[in-house]
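Hello Y.,

Per our agreement to keep a running log of every chain we model this quarter, I'm adding this entry. I've kept the format consistent with earlier entries: sequence first, then predicted structure.
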Amino acid sequence: MKFARLGAVGAEIPVLVEGDRHLDLRSLTSDVNGDFLASDFRARVTAARDAGELPELGNASALRIGAPIARPSAVICIGMNYAAHAAESGSEPPKIPILFLKTPNTVVGPNDTVTIPRGSVKTDWEVELGIVIGTRTAYLDSPDESLAHVAGFVLANDVSERDFQMAVSGGQWSKGKIAAGFNPTGPWLVTPDEIDHRALGLRSFVNGEPRQDSDTSDMIFTVEHIVHHLSQYVTLEPGDLILTGTPQGVALSGDFPYIAPGDVVEVEIDGLGRQRQEFVAWEATR
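Predicted structure for the entry above:
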């Protein structure tokens, strides 16, 4: 199943995506949020669809695409999870998952405009596979239990400001990760039965030029390992988002320029769709 949220910011309509059809889910839920994802949502949606209780949403193609999940309670990220990316960053592959956090207000629509932070000189792109949690998760006994707690997967761009992340971080990465809008997400939430998360191609482009081109099979820590590992330290709630790391090919490598105002970044993952963001300069507002 594929789920999306369509409409203006703060007024998104939850839909089931079936080919070119967008079936309105408002008879079942007000949003694609933690309560919905924890409610045996696939069975409920299947029953309602088969009973003809989900009307098609008119004019869906004209509506803005929002993030496919409502604002999560937590956005937890894994760093250096592809060996080649660790190498281009000047680091050894980690022995255990590296953890950092993004704030919930970084989660925006996949095609929303992204503002480069005031004072930024090193804004960067990172295509990533995102995990959306479906049930409350703590102290799993084995990685084999992990997928039972996953509602689905999403495409994300872990936008980063490298100077904030490295030079003024005090050893913590989150300063370079938490600017508003720094986590375009979607266009869809795709349930685990629809894709093989172990072998998904993921790519990024800047102004139409290729940057990243890799596969999730190159992850150092698998989806199952990540969810199990995190559950030993944090209680994951339904609707929470986990970003699983990015492959080589970012500006931090020194091979490409950082993002400038007017640049267009596109990222894609097989089966999870494509995003497009224009980056604009920060301007003071009253």
